[in-house]
Amino acid sequence: MATVYILNGPNLNLLGQRQPEIYGSTTLADVERACADLAGELGFETRFFQSNHEGVIVDTIHEARHQAAAIVINPGALTHTSVAILDALNTFDNPVIEVHISNIHKRESFRHHSYVSLRAEGVIAGLGTNGYLMALRHLAPLIGSRTA
């Protein structure tokens, strides 16, 4: 069965507690359950990761090169700073979808630039945690064509 890696960066472990006016009350565990349920309905599985450490995210992307049919990534603040994550994603041959819970383009100007967008096939921003589910729905036919 195909696997989609869902990667989350710094501070997303505090989802549901940190700045609920921006990020809502849904926890990362809620997102993980919703993604696993939807993936099951769509015929694939997910591996869910979160780290506050850039190198761990890079290592997980390296692992995904041999394990994953696609990556959904919300790099958090590393979106705007990490060439290392971009370089790691550039070694991954399958689809990458970038997700942001908030609309990064309506926030501080430093959040308007994303290194990850240079690699991602698509970006979903500002649709809350529903963006993760939208990413999985988008990937379903692509994954099906890779595993058929």
The CATH H-level superfamily is: Dehydroquinase, class II
In spatial order, strands of the major sheet run 2-1-3-4-5
Order of helices and strands: EHHEHEHEEH
Briefly, what CATH class?
Alpha Beta
Q: How many domain units?
A: 1
Secondary structure tally, helices: 5
Output the structural class. alpha/beta
Distance between the termini: 11 Å
* Helix fraction by DSSP (H/I, runs of at least 4): 25-40%
What value does the average pLDDT take? 92
State the shape: globular
Percent strand: 15-25%
Uncertain runs: none
Indicate the CATH topology.
Answer: Rossmann fold
User: Architecture, according to CATH?
Assistant: 3-Layer(aba) Sandwich
Largest sheet: 5 strands, parallel
Strand count: 5
Rg result: 14 Å
